[in-house]
Write a structure and sequence with these properties.
- About 45% of the residues lie in helices and about 20% in strands.
- The protein is an alpha/beta fold.
Length: about 250
């Protein structure tokens, strides 16, 4: 199962949610590979990777090396594939490297054929560049992460979501009048809204500082419990549905 996570805009907490969901799925006994597809290369920081370690699949492709060598094991059920650190010049000329990075789609095809992982999670960058579009096309489902604010509200009405997208609310604040008002509007207007939300939780901010996924750092926090509920929902509605479709064929 390929599951992509992409923010409706930047700064909505997509990377932290991706790390937390990967942790929760492996807690449920699922084999998981979590892949950083963002040039910011931040996902690794939730899995105790040294800040100065430049390794990643994109770094390997640009250097003409094997992308598999960049993989890291976090638990017996959870592996990580960082993006890799780009130089300033590479960041400034990122578009020029897109043809090289698009070769990574072959890696996704190989992973699909091998069937080693039950879940492959992709932390996708906001935007619609050619590589991101190709990666989205591999995903069975997309979780479009949104904050309940005017910015995301406008974007949900003026930018198209992927066909396989489901809107997941993150950082919902109890007691915020504007969020409550917008949330009620979304409940009536956004047909792809998921049936659970992730509330604002200081544990989410603290876990990145501790270089751990949320559920490992604070399994008793409200957000960790909500993401565990999300993982169970994904197992029930995504994985089981895929199994049923395969059986029908």
């Amino acid at each position: 199962m390929y599951l992509g996570l992409q923010g409706v805009r930047g700064g909505v907490g997509t990377t932290s949610v991706t790390a937390a969901l990967a942790w929760s799925l492996q807690l449920l006994g699922e084999s998981v590979l979590v892949i950083d597809a963002c040039p910011d290369n931040l996902l690794r920081m939730s899995f105790n990777v040294d800040f100065n370690r430049p390794d990643g699949w994109a770094r390997s492709l640009i250097d003409g090396k094997e992308w598999q060598d960049a993989g890291m094991r976090y638990t017996s059920q959870l592996d990580l594939l960082p993006f890799g650190q780009l130089t300033r010049r590479e960041q400034e000329n990122y578009a020029a490297h897109q043809p090289t990075l698009e070769l990574f789609t072959r890696a996704l095809e190989r992973l699909s054929l091998e069937g080693h992982y039950q879940w492959i999670l992709l932390d996708l960058p906001h935007g619609n560049d050619p590589l991101t579009r190709q990666l989205i096309s591999f995903c069975d489902h997309i979780l479009s992460i949104a904050n309940v604010d005017a910015n995301c509200h406008i974007r949900l009405h003026q930018q198209a979501l992927p066909a396989q997208a489901h809107i997941l609310i993150n950082d919902l604040r109890i007691g915020s009048q504007i969020q409550d008002d917008l949330y009620q509007v979304w409940l009536q207007s956004q047909r792809r809204l998921m049936p659970m939300v992730i509330h604002r939780d200081e544990g989410m901010a603290e876990c990145l500082a501790s270089k751990q996924p949320l559920g490992e750092y604070r399994s008793d926090s409200l957000a960790a419990e909500e993401i565990l509920t999300l993982a169970n929902w994904c197992l029930l509605h995504f994985a089981k549905r895929a199994e049923s479709a395969g059986s029908a064929v």
